[in-house]
Structure formats: structure tokens, C-alpha cells
Amino acid sequence: MLLNCYQEELLEAGCDEAGRGCLAGPVFAAAVILPKGFVLEGLNDSKQLSHDQRALLRPIIEQEALAWAVASCDHEEIDRINILNASFLAMHRAIEKLHTQPQYLVIDGNRFKTYPQIPHSCIVKGDGKYLNIAAASILAKTHRDEYMTNLHIDYPHYNWQQNKGYPTIAHRKAVIEIGLSPFHRKTFNVSDPQLELFSKNA
């Protein structure tokens, strides 16, 4: 069972990102402040949930949270400052957008760039331990999926509606055969040495 928050003395926001491992599109991040005693059946790490489950939970989180915000860094920023720094920047932007400023931050993962004047803790697999991080993971994931689904309309060859920009075999093959779209991350390796081996078994 997930805990409401990491500590209870200070107003706490959970933060998470989505899209770090993608070949295309932005990295999204969310920050969520939940009320004390918040309970939502089924709320868990977004990776453990289906698309339909996430879609059901998102509006409840957005309605019931004390504050929430979603922000992103686009593919050009990712290429310029690298994906790790872009993930941190997207989180900073989400925190900055909160209409209620938190006094403490809990970050999913083991690294973070300190946000000015707000202490933080990094929690490995925190989205499976704390509700506020799990809520942030769902918002980041659903908002990014929505963005990539809309991009798919203009770039159907890469099947972003299904893979959301992640490096599936079919996505890699499409890039090799068609070339990069304007939304691909040029610093990411598209042609995996194992692609040919996997393709024979696809």
C-alpha cells in the first residue's frame, strides 16, 4: 500500500517525469500536492497501470489535488542540454507552475538538480511507494501520451499513436527507412546494433 507522502511536517509535492527513453518528442514532468489523508483506489506507478486505468485516474487527481502542474522540455532542448538535465528542467518548470508553492519535494529516482530554496529527497522507485509521486507519474505520462497521439496525426509513419515515441523495433525501422521527423531527438541512437537480429524474429 502506498503512503500519502514522504514526510508530514512540510507541504510536500511529488514529482516525476515521462519520456526519458523515447526517440522522439518532449520529456514531460508533473508536480502534485495531495491533501492529507488522500485516498484513491488503484493509484499506483503509472507503468503498472493500463491506458484505461490511467485515463480514469487522471481527472480525479486533477480535481482532488491541492495543486498540480505539468511541464515539458522539447526535443531541441533535450539535444542541447541532454536528457537528464532536460528531465530536471521539466520538473523545475512544473514546480514553478504550481499555484501553491510546496515546502518540500520528493523526486522519483536517484538524482535531481536542487530547486531553489526548497529541500528535496530522491526516492528510488518512489512512484510505487508514495501517492503524490504516483499521481505525478500518471499526469506526466497521460499528458505526454496525449501530446504524442496528436503528433501522430501529422506523422503517421512512426506510429506514435501506439508507441508514443519509444524505441520499438517498428519505430526504429521507420526512422531508418523514412528518416528523422522534425520531432526526433538527433542525439539519440536510432540504429541499434541488435535491430537486425530482433527484426528477423519480429
From TrEMBL:
Residue numbers binding a divalent metal cation: D16, E17, D108
Segments forming domain RNase H type-2: 10-200
Manner of cofactor binding, per the entry note: Manganese or magnesium. Binds 1 divalent metal ion per monomer in the absence of substrate. May bind a second metal ion after substrate binding.
Pfam hit, one: RNase_HII
SUPFAM superfamilies: Ribonuclease H-like
InterPro entries: RNase_HII, RNase_HII/HIII, RNase_HII/HIII_dom, RNaseH-like_sf, RNaseH_sf
Entry keywords, A to Z: Cytoplasm, Endonuclease, Hydrolase, Manganese, Metal-binding, Nuclease
Role, per record: Endonuclease that specifically degrades the RNA of RNA-DNA hybrids.
Name assigned to this protein: Ribonuclease HII
Name of the encoding gene: rnhB
